[in-house]
Amino acid sequence: MMRDSVLSLTGIAKKANKIASGEFQVETAVKSGKASLVLISSEASGNTKKKFQNMCSFYEVPAYFHGTREELGAASGSEFRAVLAVLDAGLARAIEKKLTAAVPE
Prior knowledge:
Helix content: 55-70%
Shape: globular
Largest sheet: 4 strands, mixed
Distance between the termini: 18 Å
Number of strands: 4
Strand order of the largest sheet: 1-4-2-3
């Protein structure tokens, strides 16, 4: 249930043109300060996961592992995506709230 709401909010961000998808666009968005949240596919390669975790940590952008490459791709209007950046702060907060609510403590 939580997975669907996260991907739904990601789809809304895409329709609002507030998504950067793909490694190059996400890296550019994070480094330029435009990214408010980064979603990394659980199926991404180890190098991709490490690269974006380290980059997001350095630039203080929240990063979460969520969904498959197909699910992130569908939410961003593409076939497959390993990483997505949400550029809108309000949508990013809503997605982060759903993601943190889904994690049991």
